[in-house]
Amino acid sequence: MLLHIFPYFLFFNLCLSSGCVGILKSELDEESDVQTAVTVNVSLTLEEIQFVSATNMEYEVTLLLHQRWLDPRLDNNLCTQQKAVNGQIWRPKITLVKGCLKICNNVDDTQFWRGFGSKGNVLLSEKVTIRSSCTRDFRRYPFDIQICELKFGSYVFPVDEIELNWDRNPIKILSRTDLDTFELTNVTTYSEIDVRPSGNFRILAVQFFVKRYFTNYVMSIIISGNLLVTLSYASFWINRERINFRLTMCLSNIAFLIYLHVHSCSNTLINALDLFFVTCLIFLIFSLFGNCLVSYLLSMIHVVDKGNRNHQRSIILVHRWIKILYPVIYLSSFLLYSYSVIY
User: Fold this and answer.
1) Which of the 8 DSSP states describes residue 239?
2) Can you tell me whether residue 33 is helix, strand or coil?
3) What are 190's strand-pairing partners?
4) C-alpha triplet 66, 68, 72: angle, nearest 5°
5) Is the confidence at residue 259, as pLDDT, over 80?
6) Deepest in the core among 16, 84, 276, 324, taking most CB within 10 A?
7) Residue 61 half-sphere exposure, CB side, CA atoms within 13 Å?
8) What domains appear along the chain, each with residue ranges and CATH number?
9) What is the dihedral of CA 119, 110, 42, 39, to 10 degrees?
10) What's this model's pTM, rounded to 2 decimal places?
11) 8 A C-beta contact, residue 189 and residue 147
């Protein structure tokens, strides 16, 4: 008989020494105590970030969500570990407020729980994969900087029950900052209060600033557009008797510019690169009509008014002014465009 009772006696002594009775007593007296807000410090470890669609500015990020708080009912003992295994530990239930959380197949494999110290310090780390979208401000494209924002909060506990704060070191980056067509340049955090009919809730937000790599656009599009405008301007220096060659050059430049714009357009929104194409197209069309006008006037002078040298000189003077004003106006427009887009 004593042999059957002895194991239960040992287990009861073990619970007394490990503090199970204190935990049960605190849980029973929990409702009678004055409830205060639990402070939860949050930090993120960025493991991987990549763009799913650069056109729609959709990205996917894998990170560790670290949550630290103080629970005096817990201790680094056997009973606390058993409660953690059984899922009986209180959690702040932080979820995504902005962004789409991809569901994991096995939630237990993506969580890490640890209680440490004698004062009930708790650490909960969850590995999550999130898909969200960045801003789509293409006014300075391809020199644009976009903001990718994530927001975390709780739909269960308002600020009078949980106070969410960023940790001293809120963000730790383990992934590469080179994101194919973008570069991760800066990460900032802030907090705000979300007022809802059910109460006020604390929201924690993190912003990833990504800058587009523009070298490829400059080499393949902007330099090509400038070369086409230069070739159209060179047509004014060709002998006016070769009008067919001059017109063919202008028309070819216009066709190639349109082809370049169609195959380089990556979004449907109006952006700074579209403004550059429109500017180049205006100057190409101007060179086309300028060549036609000058050739027509000179041919009329040669046929109808052959003896009027003053009229012939005035037409030649207009032709010279076109050759002077064309590059001056274009260079001024291009410098103004570059300054407004880059700076």
Assistant:
1) -
2) coil
3) 205
4) 155
5) yes
6) 276
7) 27
8) 38-212 (2.70.170.10), 215-342 (1.20.58.390)
9) -40
10) 0.73
11) no
